[in-house]
Structure formats: structure tokens, C-alpha cells
Amino acid sequence: MLARNAESLYWIGRYVERADDTARILDVSVHQLLEDATVDPDATSRQLLAVLGIDAPGDASFDVWSLTELVAYSSDHAGSIVASINSARENTRGAREVVSTEMWECLNAMYNAVRERQAYARVMGPHAFFAFVEERAAMFAGLADSTMSRDDGWRFLVLGRSVERVDMIVRLLLSRVADKASSPGWVTVLRSAGAHDTYLRTYRGAMDASRVVQFLLLDRLFPRSVFHALRQAEACLEQLDHQPTVRVGARAEALRLLGRARSDLEFLRPHDLLDDLPRRLKALQATVRDVGEAVSKQYFHTAPWVAWTNAEVV
Amino acid sequence: MTRSRARTSGLRRTPARAVARLGELFDGYLDPARPHADAYDEMFGEDSSVRSAYRALYDSIAPSQVAELTARSEALDRAFVDQGITFSLSGQERPFPLDLIPRVLTAAEWSKLERGIVQRVRALELFLADIYGDAQIVRDGVLPRRLITSCEHFHREATLLKPPNGVRLHVSGVDLVRDESGTFRVLEDNLRCPSGVSYVMENRRTMARVFPDLFARHRVRSVGDYAVHLLRALRNAAAPNAADPNVVVLTPGVANSAYFEHSLLARQMGVELVEGRDLFCRDNVVYLRTTEGERQVDVIYRRIDDDFLDPVHFRPDSVLGVAGLLNAARAGNVVIANAVGNGVADDKLVYTYLPEIVQYYLGEKPLLPNVDTFRCWLPEERAHVLDHLDELVVKPVEGSGGYGIVFGPQASTRELNALRRTIRANPRGWIAQPVVQLSTVPTKVGDRLAPRHVDLRPFAVNDGNSIFVLPGGLTRVALPEGSLIVNSSQGGGSKDTWVLAARSSTVDRELAEPGLATSAVESPAAEQGPELTTSQQQQQQQQEKGA
After folding, report:
1. What are the E-state strand segments in B97-201?
2. Helix, strand, or coil here: B474?
3. Would you call B266 an interface residue with chain A, using a CB distance cutoff of 8 Å?
4. Of B83, B288, B312, the CB nearest to A2
5. Whole-number Å distance between alpha carbons of A60 and A45
6. What pLDDT score was predicted for residue B136?
7. Residue B526: count of CB within 10 angstroms of its CB
8. How far apart are CA A218 and CA A280, in angstroms?
9. What is the pLDDT of residues A220-269, one digit of tens each?
10. What pTM was computed for the model?
11. Measured between beta carbons, which residues in chain A are less than 8 angstroms from residue B311?
12. How crowded is residue B219: how many other Cβ atoms within 10 Å of its Cβ?
């Protein structure tokens, strides 16, 4: 398929997932700020911004509302929900012939509704906006699932989504590493990942930080776990590689990076997980960045721009 | 009230005969004091009777309530915004306003137009082949040589570049207007990258959703198969050694005002939509950059102007084009559609010579007349133009999109003086035409229907064997009262254009065609899962008090 379209699909996958997950992460923090009177709103907000990689203006003191303005509504901060929606839609507009009309209309209607939903959420509270973003992202995923052929285009979309999911679950966990093991915040983390019911069934109701982290990082069956997302990304890359003739190791750099990160997690003793958790999460983040670069180098060869000024015509 | 009366009094069958009985939607429609009152109205005739083409439409619309029409109109707008059917104007995305009331052409009117357009395209094909070949028409003294060589869009680079199947006008758009007597005249030809066909298709799709009952009462010829014809023409254009030609659509990119159209056509044809940076040339062959490496391209349906197409031959600073494209075409390794240099045939001064061109190549009289035009480069005609500037419409020969046009009757003395100097300095650059009162069609303006001026751009596709004209075309409507400028960049909207099917037409033959299966197909009812709770269980569950 056309390299530019492949790149667009990869980024559509990433941006939609990013909007979705940012809404989920923010939802947890907003609820904590509202429900727990003991937290310092400014410090907690700044910590969250640092985890999301958004530059915080130094002068202002943050509260729930200004945090939501910045992370959710502001369109000039790359990384905000609205900015992710805009980018997803812009990428789809440039790749209309490789996404289905339903998928395009889903994103376009979402983009058109943002302003109205924002105004509504400013009155009714930010959860209304987060719920809107999560619903639309789910709708997009469903439409992609039922309308896209399982060809390379689909693989690039899923690859982008999986890579972003690893990155965002890591950020979600990073935003909570300062919490106590018994903090009620861990329940909210599970809820925000849509993992609460499954977790309860899996661990028979036992709730502690180590199990929550274990579930979100290592679970083989839960689709929003880091392990599952890594394996899915790996599978996409394997299928994209049309000449798997290599006999030693992995031919492609991206595949090698993903495989290594996956097996690191796979063969880790579960009770060692909490030791050194921040370092482990940082390492995963670095892997995601390197994978992105490797994929772009292998598949999205962009042409260097050549100036033809004063060309001699013969 | 109007509605119930119309329903019971049989107004549906017998059309209204007088202004007073037009119904509230048409209140004041035929006001004699309206601007351009002598323009031809396509719905109402001289004595305010409804013309036959519009009778069924009028009978459906006239009894409707304003609120109903407004609701439908809003539904149209919403559908367009959600589907992203927009054009960009100064960097902003806007929906192209679609008016609720369709424009109707009878089978007889259309067949006349169709023949005229086909004749015109045939003549222009021969003209282009000649101009970029031996230029026999110039040698024979029918056209002056400097008419051609002074044309901005005449490209010597395209000389002797002969397309494999001889077609240069894969797609043409002919702009037609209807004068005061109801006669269709050609206002200009668009032979480079005519745009607007996507609106024809999308207008129809959206109207059918919003106004199903109107379609049920008419037999409207379909516009849905345009892409099939276009793809056939593009594949036929490929060099004969390309067994399964790889066709692509070349777009300037998402910021272009017609991007939606480029993307729609690519999707409907099932081919790649590419930008210049997705292509490259090596050894006079054009390749596509794909995730699996490079793939050769055989036919490029380009929606980029000649000037930007190839930085090696044309504008060297172009970032939209592909370096080496023209050389690849000259080497016969790729076909560019529409061909490079077609602009020489839609130059507005060359246009004035069309009767001579049709006569020279086909030995026929043009079936579609031009609008009377004064050529400023001929001294006598220039003198006339300069003396009557305040009565004429003056147009630059290179312009498009309605830019640069001066309406004499509305221009100030200062503007006219400036124009006079401009014309004297560059007489080749200007033509002048009397103000044509474009025909009017009822258009929804606020709470009622009012006459607004329209033009028509039908699209013709030449696949080398025959010329297909898409039934109808794009009707553009000037929304401001009294305005005669229909361009979308100047506040124009569009209308769905209906060509009614003749009694014994292809439509009937298509309807008569049998389906896949001849016998009725019966299937068992869809399966159901087991009953989860029997009614007896439910009863007992409810009776049980619980602990």
C-alpha cells in the first residue's frame, strides 16, 4: 500500500487511542482531586502533566478546572484530547480512500461535535466530555473492526493503536506510582482502563497495588494490558513482513525491540514487579519511542525534498 | 390552510394558472419589480403557468409547509457537514450549500444538450490533436497563428506528445447558461481539470435520503455510474503494452478546495489517491512509493494544473508535481489525463472561434451556440467594447472561478476607466459579452421560494470509443438576490439536477433486466437461542419471598 497512507493509518490508530486513554487517565485524576480532600490539587496536577509530557505553565496554580482546560480542551498543546482528535481527523481526511466512509464519518462527526460537548462539559462537569470521547473511540474501533479488510492497512492501524496503548498504560501507571499500596486510587485506575470487572473476576475480589500493576502490565488475556498490546503489535509487524526468511533473530529492528520488551515482561517473576517499577516503566516508554522510529524508517520512507530551481532542461 | 386546500381541491392534477394561486411558499415569486425580471424562469412560463418539466415537482412542493421544508433543508446541511463534503475557502472548510429544490430538464431538452456537447468535445479533440501536431488549421488560414502562440496555456512541451489512444479530453466540463428565450448557450469550456462532479453525485445521494417522496414521483436518470465511465476512459488511455494498467489520481493535497472530489473519485474507482511526493521518476518511468517498495504507474488522472505538474519543465518551485513526469509521458511510459496543454482549447479568445473550429473539422454547424462575444484584440470590436463598457461584462481570457470579471452596469466610472486602460494595454487578455440574464429556478431563501439565477456544467468523459455525458451535471445557483455570479468562491450554491427519463429509454431496459434469481427465494425464520427462564420459573421466582 501507499507509504503515506500506511503512515496515516498508523497515526490514526495512535491518535484515537491517545484521545481515548488521555480521557481515561484524566478521569481518574479528576475524580481523585474531587473526592480526596487530602491531596494538593496543584502538585497532583503538575505530576500528571509531567507524566503526560505536557509542559505546565509555571505561574498558575492548578485545580480540577484548569487541569481539564489544559489536558482536555486546549487545542494548542500537542497531547491534549482535542489536539489528538484533530490530528486523527486530519490524518483520516488525507487517507480517505483507505478508511471506510463509516470510520471517516465517525471521526468527522466527533470533530464537529467537540465544541458543543466542551461547552456542555464546562457546565455539567468534565466526566461528560470524557465519556463522549471514550464512546466515540469505541465506536471507531467497532467500525474499523467491522468495515476494514484484514490487509496491511488494518495491520498499520492496529500497530499504531497497540503501540500507543503500551505508551498510555505506562503513563497511567506512572501517574500513580507515588500512591500508597492501599490507596483507593487503584480501583479508579482499573475502572478507567475498563478492567475493574475482569480484575475482580480474575483475582476474586482481592485488591492491592501489586495485583493491579500485575494485571495491567502482565495479563495475557486482558486486551488493555501492556503485555497483550505488545504481543499484538508484534503480530502486526510479523504479518507486515512479507519475506520472513531470516534464520537468526528478527530481521526488522521494530520487531526485535518489541520482542525483547515482551519477553522481559513475560519471564519476569511477578512478585519482583513492584521493585524498581518506575525504571521498568521508563524503559517501556523508551522502547515505544524506538519502535516508532524503526517502523517509520522501515515503512514510511518519506522523500527528501529536491529543489529544481535553475534546472537545466536538455 | 394552503396545504389542506391543495390536497382536497385536486390542485395536484391541475397546475396553478395564476400568480395569486401559487401557494404561500411562492408568495411574491413572480414580482414584476424583481431584478432581471425578463430572465427565463424554468418553472413558470409567460402566463405564470407551470412548465411541464416541473409540474409534478410543483404539485409536491407547493402544498408543503415552510417548517417542513426548513427541516429538510437543515437535514441536508447536517448530512454534508458530517460527511465532510466541504470546499475550502480562504483556508476554512465550508459545506457547499445545496438548495432543496431540484432543477429539472426534460428528456427532449437533455438529448439536444447531449448531442451538442458530444459534437463540441469531438471538435475540440481534433483541434488539440492538430494544434499539437501539424497545425493544419493554421496552415489553412482558418485561425491566425498568433491566436495560438499568444495563448498562455499553449505548451510547446506538449508538441508531438501523442496519447496512445489519441484522447486528450478524458474529462471535459462545458459551462452552459440559458438566455432570456430559454436557449442554452455555451459560456465557456473547462478542458484542463474541470471540477464539481463529486457534488453532482453527492447532491443526488443526499437528496434521495432527505426527499424520498419526490424521487418516487419522478423518473430521474441516475448519476451514480460516473466513476465507472471515468475508470474505463483512464484504463483505455493506457499504453497498449500495459496489461492491467495502474491508474492513480494525483491531487495537490488536503488543503486544495477540491480535495473532497479527488478523494471521492479515487475511492469510487478503487485506485490510489496520490500526492506528488508519493511518486518519483527513474529512467522515464513513474513509480509509486509503497510499503513494499516501488510500483510502476501507467495512467495519472491529475487534478493539478500544468504549471505545477513537473518542476523540470514548468514552475521549478513546484512542490506538488513530480520531477520528470513530462519526459516519462513523452517517452510513452505514462499517460497524463487530461493531457498537458489542453488549456489552449479553453482559452476564452479561442472559444470565440469555435464555430469555425467545428465547421473546419466536422463540416457541421455547432448545435450549441456560444454567447455573443466581442474580441478586444480585433481593433473594430475593441472600439465597440471601449464605447459600451458600461453595458458589457468584461472577462480576462485566462481567468476562472469568477475572478477578474467586471460587470459594466454595476462598475463605477473609476473602475471603468481603469478597465479601459487595462484593455488598451493588453487587448489579447480580454473579451466582452453582453450581460446574459441567466435563467432562474425557485430556490429556498428564508421562509419562501424565490427566483435565483443558475448555470449548468455537464461533464463529458471520452474513453476513446465514445463520449459519455453524465445526465444532468452541476447546477450552480447564485444565492444573493439579483446576482449573476454562480461561483462557489463568490457565494454560490448548487442544486440537484434532474434529467427526466423518456418513456422508452434505457431506464426501461434496465428495469426489464431480470434479477439473479428468477424464482422466489424462501428461507426459514432466523434462529433463536434457548428460552432462558420459562414462564413457570418466572412465576415461582416472583412468588418466592426470599430470606
Report:
1. 98-105, 171-178, 184-190
2. strand
3. yes
4. B288
5. 11
6. 94
7. 5
8. 13
9. 999 999 999 999 999 999 888 876 666 666 678 899 999 999 999 999 88
10. 0.81
11. 308, 311
12. 18
